[in-house]
């Protein structure tokens, strides 16, 4: 079996359709996940199949592929023989009949639907989605709409790749609606978006190869917080194993607070990937400025330092809030303050007792902060 790279689309269309085809390694993982859950009576459907990379497997199940991109579908028909192909918009008029699947057939959805935020500012200039989406599955992210379409198809099993943020960011999780009410995650392996050949290498985000099973109790956000995601053979990540900065300081501005000349200002905090892109302490007020509660200044300093050392944080924590071990931080606090004050001299007046006279303090702070991070992250510490 050989998977194929997408070659027929221009950059703009590739972004619009989210056409980043999946390579064999990830396709194999998905098949390993489903193999013990399906049998010959199952229908396997990839409703956004591209050239059909997920459907090349030699099995006795009925295989169905679909894509909105007609050129992709004609390539798939040349690549794969034992398959039924359709050229529909998978998000409009979602039902089994359009793929000739009976209501009583067992259905497994497999694939890598497009994920892109229809409202994202970064790519506003080129993004232009021009197909209809059924009202009952419409959201601002195409990938979430795809997950919801699988619920409308009443799939028994779903094994797809999607951004980890759909599960671990509360606002995204809430957009899953009926999908989270009717399906439960039973297996999840995290991979990096950087492992896709045509994707950006500069800002990598975590993608999960996720296996969901129909379940009358569905899954709660708490369930996800306690879920063990696999990273490597013996390496797992669970959100609840960490404590987060949002338990100590506010991440968002208070609309009604007015800054004055004594205010210390900080940029809105989102996840770790956003922190890498954004500033921390800022001079000018704006709708994104948090007015720092000075009794908690140490924690804002923590975030400022965390940003500078973010290269030690693994990519799969990119969608989490800044993590912290408070007890340990209190022990190491003076080094964080030292480090931050080297870069933020305007804050020195709040720490009048601190001595900056010794040049080696900067290196000492660095050494101690690394020690803190190693203890905070344990096996997740990235070199
Ligand atoms: C991430 S690619 C995955 C392709 C293939 N499953 C693979 O992994 O190699 C996403 C695919 O979704 C298709 N697509 C985007 N919007 C669609 C829609 N509304 N209906 C059907 N397919 C769509 C794109 O044309 C693209 O082929």
Architecture blueprint of SSEs:
Blueprint: H1 11-17, H2 24-35, E1 42-46, E2 62-66, H3 70-79, E3 84-86, E4 106-111, H4 142-152, E5 157-163, H5 165-168, H6 170-175, H7 178-182, E6 183-192, E7 206-214, H8 221-225, E8 229-232, E9 235-237, E10 243-244, E11 265-267, H9 272-277, E12 281-282, E13 289-291, H10 297-308, E14 323-324, H11 326-343, H12 360-377
Parallel strand pairs: 1-2, 1-4, 2-3, 4-5
Antiparallel strand pairs: 5-7, 6-7, 8-9, 10-14, 11-12, 11-13
Helix pairs in contact: 10-11, 11-12
Bound molecules: S-adenosylmethionine (SAM).
Please describe what this structure looks like:
- The protein has 383 residues and is an alpha/beta fold.
- The chain folds into two domains: 11-241, Vaccinia Virus protein VP39 (Rossmann fold), CATH 3.40.50.150; 243-380, no CATH class.
- 30% of the residues lie in helices and 17% in strands.
- It has twelve helices and 14 strands.
- It binds S-adenosylmethionine (SAM).
- S-adenosylmethionine (SAM) is lined by residues 17-22, 46, 48-50, 53-54, 67-69, 72, 89-91, 111-114, 131.
Give the bound compounds.
Answer: S-adenosylmethionine
Helicity range of the residues? 25-40%
Summarize model confidence as the mean pLDDT: 92
The CATH superfamily name of the largest domain is Vaccinia Virus protein VP39
Q: Note the run of SSEs as H and E.
A: HHEEHEEHEHHHEEHEEEEHEEHEHH
- Taking strands numbered 1, 2, ... along the chain, how are they ordered across the largest sheet? 3-2-1-4-5-7-6
Residue stretches low in confidence (pLDDT < 50, at least 5 long) are 121-127
CATH architecture of the largest domain, by name, is 3-Layer(aba) Sandwich
Number of strands: 14
Query: Span between N and C termini?
Result: 35 Å
Radius of gyration: 24 Å
Largest sheet: 7 strands, mixed
Structural class: alpha/beta
Strand residue percentage = 15-25%
Based on CA inertia axes, which overall geometry fits? elongated
